[in-house]
């Protein structure tokens, strides 16, 4: 587990470096609007992932409730970053859209490397046990809140983080993509919750929850 903890800290540092470098690069070209810069699902999900990795690395489980809380955070972060990777690969990369990360190496870190790492960490790290389905709703809170804020901003000040959420394309199209994002988050979350029941290599099977 010591190797896993250090690896998580290294990945967390990589996320922080990518976000800071992107912020600096953007600031060198234009005035930073923090509500815009930090409004991207990619940026927010990576920051969530960074915090979760640090918490999972430095904490020592001292109660079943604390252990479950950390695992729920990991499960949620893994879900969001899987969605980041899928949306980038399917919707943004074909359009040549940077998705809020115009710096090439930082784009690769946040859209490719980090999502892949979270999946590998979820599958192979030994500090995992079955997540309770009764708490699956937790994974949907942040994405739905994010969509709501984006829709309000798109209808008021006109800013949207991704072209497929632009109201100028028609609210029917926007509604379709919001529904699609919700479906993808639900499916990704269900996969993460389901995989929590698959024992990591070298660990005994856990009882179902």
TrEMBL record:
Compartments annotated for it: namely: Endomembrane system
Transmembrane annotation, as ranges: 40-59, 71-93, 105-124, 136-154, 174-195
Which InterPro entries does the entry link to? ADTRP_AIG1, Pr6Pr-like
Query: Which keywords does this Swiss-Prot/TrEMBL entry list?
Result: Membrane, Signal, Transmembrane, Transmembrane helix
An example Gene Ontology cellular component term from the record? membrane
Give a Pfam family name.
Answer: Far-17a_AIG1
- UniProt keyword annotation of Transmembrane helix present: yes
Q: Which domain of life is it from?
A: Bacteria
Q: What is its main location?
A: membrane
Tell me which positions the record assigns to the signal sequence: 1-24
Give membrane topology per the record: Multi-pass membrane protein
> Know the name of this protein?
FAR-17a/AIG1-like protein
> What lineage is on file?
Bacteria, Bacillati, Actinomycetota, Actinomycetes, Micrococcales
């Amino acid at each position: 587990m010591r190797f896993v903890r250090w690896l998580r800290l290294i990945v967390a540092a990589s996320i922080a470096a990518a976000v800071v470098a992107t912020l600096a690069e953007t600031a060198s070209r234009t005035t930073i609007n923090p509500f815009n810069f930090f409004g991207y699902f990619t940026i927010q999900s990576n920051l969530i992932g960074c915090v979760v990795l640090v918490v999972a690395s430095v904490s020592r489980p001292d109660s079943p409730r604390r252990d479950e809380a950390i695992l729920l955070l990991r499960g949620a972060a893994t879900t969001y970053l899987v969605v980041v990777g899928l949306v980038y690969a399917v919707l943004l990369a074909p359009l040549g859209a940077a998705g809020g990360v115009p710096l090439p190496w930082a784009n690769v870190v946040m859209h490719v490397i980090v999502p892949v790492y979270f999946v590998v960490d979820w599958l192979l790290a030994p500090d995992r046990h079955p997540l309770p389905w009764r708490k699956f709703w937790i994974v949907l809170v942040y994405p739905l809140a994010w969509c709501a804020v984006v829709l309000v901003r798109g209808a008021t000040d006109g800013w949207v983080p991704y072209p497929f959420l632009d109201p100028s394309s028609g609210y029917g199209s926007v509604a379709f993509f919001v529904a699609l994002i919700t479906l993808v988050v639900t499916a990704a979350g269900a996969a993460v919750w389901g995989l929590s029941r698959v024992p990591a290599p070298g660990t005994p099977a856990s009882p179902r929850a």
